[in-house]
């Protein structure tokens, strides 16, 4: 069971200059495991994550990320775990399920939905992350809050951060 950050899907499509060829391949493999039923995808029941996927992909494309979007659109109701998340009134990227911690105040508002979904699910599934190095800075505080981030392209993140 996993939550998938959009950058994993974009990287799998080969549309990230930051990602190495190994990273692209690994991201594709992770998506294939979900589509084959080996791993279950967790989404929010408001389709906030799905809408972001749709803004970045083409459901009729041939690349693995595009095929993943097409798979979700067909299978979202019976092969995905949908969890409710609660937007904070009047705020687009704030959710009641996001951990209330001053150490997370600077966490990217656009990525808070992924954390909210992981926190809202009873099994607290890991979040797959590819090359968004900003997540790396918050990994310890997220872990303290019960959020696991699986950095599937850690070598790329270290290279991007300048600490190979």
> What is the total tally of β strands?
5
Assembly of the depicted chains = single chain
Beta-strand percent range: 5-15%
Mean pLDDT: 94
Which structural category do the helix and sheet elements fall into? mainly alpha
Q: What strand order characterises the main sheet?
A: 1-4-5
Spans of at least 5 consecutive residues with low confidence: none
Helix content: 40-55%
Distance between the termini: 30 Å
Report on this structure.
Helix 1 crosses helix 2 (21-35), helix 1 (6-12) packs across helix 4 (64-75) and helix 2 packs parallel to helix 4. The protein is built from eight helices and five strands, in the order E-H-H-E-H-H-E-H-E-H-H-E-H. The chain has a three-stranded parallel sheet. It has a two-stranded parallel sheet with strand order 2-3. The protein has 164 residues and is mostly helical. It has one domain (11-161). The longest helix has 15 residues, at 21-35. The model has no long low-confidence stretch (mean pLDDT 94).
């Amino acid at each position: 069971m996993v939550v998938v950050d959009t950058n994993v899907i974009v990287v799998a499509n080969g549309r990230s200059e930051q990602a190495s060829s190994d990273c692209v391949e690994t991201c594709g493999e992770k998506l294939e495991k979900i589509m084959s039923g080996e791993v279950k995808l967790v989404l929010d029941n408001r389709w906030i994550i799905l809408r972001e996927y749709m803004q970045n992909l083409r459901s009729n494309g041939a690349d693995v990320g595009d095929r993943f979007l097409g798979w979700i659109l067909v299978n979202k109701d019976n092969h995905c775990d949908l969890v409710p998340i609660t937007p904070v009134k009047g705020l687009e990227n704030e959710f009641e399920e996001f951990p209330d911690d001053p150490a997370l105040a600077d966490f990217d508002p656009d990525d808070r939905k992924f954390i909210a979904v992981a926190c809202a699910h009873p099994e607290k599934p890991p979040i797959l992350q590819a090359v968004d190095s900003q997540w790396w800075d918050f990994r310890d505080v997220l872990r303290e809050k019960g959020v696991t981030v699986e950095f599937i392209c850690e070598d790329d993140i270290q290279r991007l951060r300048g600490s190979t």
